[in-house]
C-alpha cells in the first residue's frame, strides 16, 4: 500500500529571514520609512508587459544589477557586527546566485516543460504585496529597483515562482524517486514477514489532548519539519510536518509527544492502520521522504510504534547535476 501526504503550498518568507553566504542569517529590523508610490496602473499593465518578447528576460548583467540592489537592501537591515557588503556578497557570489536562478529556469523548462507565465508571476507579486510582514522593507526593495513594477516582478517574483514550481514537481516526480520508493516497499514487505529492518526508531505518542495549562518545556510540541530551499540568498520554506519522526528533538528527560501534533492526514492514516501490535502502515509519501510505521504497543493513552524514514533524492544535489 502507498499513501501520499501533500505538503501545504510553499510559503515564502522573504523579508523576515534571508539566508546568504555560508548560511548566515540576516535579521531584518523593520524601520519606518516614507511610503513609496506604487503606480496604480501596474496591476492593469502587468500581464501585458511582464513577458513580451523584448522584455521577457533580462540579460545577465541586468539580472546581476537587480540582484545586487535587492541584496543590498537586506544587508542594510542586518543587525550587529557585519562585514562590508562587498565582503559579504562579492560580485562573484551574486553572479553565482543569478546563474543558479537561470539553471532552475532551464531545469523547469527542460525536465518538466514548464515556464513561469505572466499570470503566475502576477499572482506572486500580489501575494507578496498582500502578505508581507515587512512592508517598509518591501518598499525599499521596490525603490532600489527604480520603482519599476516590471523589474520588481522579473527580479524578485519570478525566481520565487520558478523555485516553487520546480521544487513541487521534483518532490512529486515518481521516476526520480523510484529507487527510494522501492526501498520503502521492500522494507514494508520485510515488516509484514516479521523480518528485521534496519534504521528503525521507536516513538511513543500520547493519545490524549495536550494539557491546557501548566505546560512545561518538556511538553512543548515539536516544531514543524521545514525543508529549506535556498534560491541563492532568497529563502523558500516548505513546511511538511509529520511530527518528531522527521524532526527528532534534543533528548529531554520525560519529554512527551502528542499524537495531535502530527499532520492531520498522517493522524488519519495511523489511526486506521495501527490498531494492534504488529500492524504495519502503508508506505507514506511526504514531499521529502517515504515513511513506514509498525505498532509496538497501543493502549487507551499511548501509541508506541517503530518508524522508518527513507529520504528521497536531494533536491540540491539533483539541481547541481542539471545543465544550464
What do you see in this structure?
The chain has helices spanning 41-49, 60-76, 85-88, 91-112, 118-131, 135-144, 149-171, 178-192, 264-273, 315-320, and strands at residues 2-4, 11-12, 17-19, 25-27, 200-206, 226-231, 234-239, 257-258, 283-285, 289-298, 302-311. The protein has 324 residues and is α+β, with helices and mostly antiparallel strands. The protein starts with a strand and ends with a helix. Mean pLDDT is 79; it is low at 9-56 and 213-249.
Task: Provide keyphrases for this structure.
324 residues, six-stranded mixed sheet, three-stranded antiparallel sheet, 11 strands
Blueprint (SSEs and pairs):
Layout: E1 2-4, E2 11-12, E3 17-19, E4 25-27, H1 41-49, H2 60-76, H3 85-88, H4 91-112, H5 118-131, H6 135-144, H7 149-171, H8 178-192, E5 200-206, E6 226-231, E7 234-239, E8 257-258, H9 264-273, E9 283-285, E10 289-298, E11 302-311, H10 315-320
Amino acid at each position: 500500500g502507498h499513501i501520499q501526504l501533500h505538503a501545504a503550498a510553499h510559503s515564502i518568507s522573504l523579508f523576515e529571514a534571508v539566508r546568504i553566504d555560508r548560511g548566515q542569517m540576516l535579521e531584518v529590523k523593520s524601520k519606518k520609512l516614507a511610503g513609496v508610490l506604487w503606480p496604480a496602473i501596474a496591476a492593469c499593465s502587468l500581464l501585458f508587459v511582464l513577458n513580451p518578447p523584448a522584455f521577457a528576460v533580462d540579460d545577465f548583467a541586468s539580472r546581476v544589477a537587480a540582484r545586487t540592489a535587492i541584496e543590498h537592501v537586506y544587508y542594510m537591515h542586518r543587525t550587529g557586527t557585519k562585514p562590508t557588503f562587498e565582503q559579504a556578497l562579492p560580485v562573484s557570489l551574486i553572479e553565482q546566485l543569478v546563474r543558479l536562478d537561470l539553471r532552475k529556469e532551464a531545469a523547469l523548462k527542460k525536465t518538466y516543460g514548464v515556464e513561469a507565465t505572466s499570470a503566475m508571476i502576477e499572482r506572486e507579486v500580489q501575494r507578496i504585496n498582500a502578505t508581507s510582514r515587512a512592508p517598509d522593507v518591501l518598499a525599499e526593495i521596490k525603490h532600489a529597483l527604480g520603482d519599476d513594477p516590471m523589474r520588481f516582478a522579473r527580479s524578485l517574483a519570478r525566481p520565487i515562482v520558478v523555485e516553487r514550481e520546480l521544487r513541487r514537481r521534483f518532490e512529486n516526480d515518481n521516476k526520480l524517486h523510484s529507487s527510494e520508493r522501492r526501498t520503502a516497499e521492500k522494507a514494508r514487505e520485510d515488516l509484514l514477514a516479521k523480518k528485521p529492518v534496519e534504521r528503525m526508531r521507536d516513538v511513543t505518542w500520547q493519545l490524549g489532548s495536550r494539557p491546557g495549562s501548566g505546560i512545561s518545556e518538556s511538553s512543548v510540541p515539536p516544531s514543524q519539519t521545514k525543508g529549506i530551499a535556498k534560491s541563492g540568498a532568497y529563502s523558500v520554506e516548505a513546511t511538511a510536518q509529520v511530527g518528531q519522526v522527521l524532526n527528532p528533538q534534543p533528548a529531554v528527560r520525560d519529554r512527551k509527544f502528542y499524537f495531535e501534533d502530527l499532520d492531520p492526514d498522517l493522524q488519519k492514516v495511523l489511526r486506521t492502520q495501527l490498531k494492534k501490535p504488529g500492524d504495519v502502515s502503508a508506505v507514506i509519501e511526504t514531499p521529502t521522504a517515504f515513511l513506514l510505521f509498525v505498532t509496538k504497543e497501543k493502549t487507551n493513552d499511548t501509541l508506541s510504534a517503530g518508524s522508518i524514514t527513507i529520504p528521497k533524492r536531494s533536491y540540491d544535489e539533483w539541481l547541481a547535476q542539471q545543465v544550464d
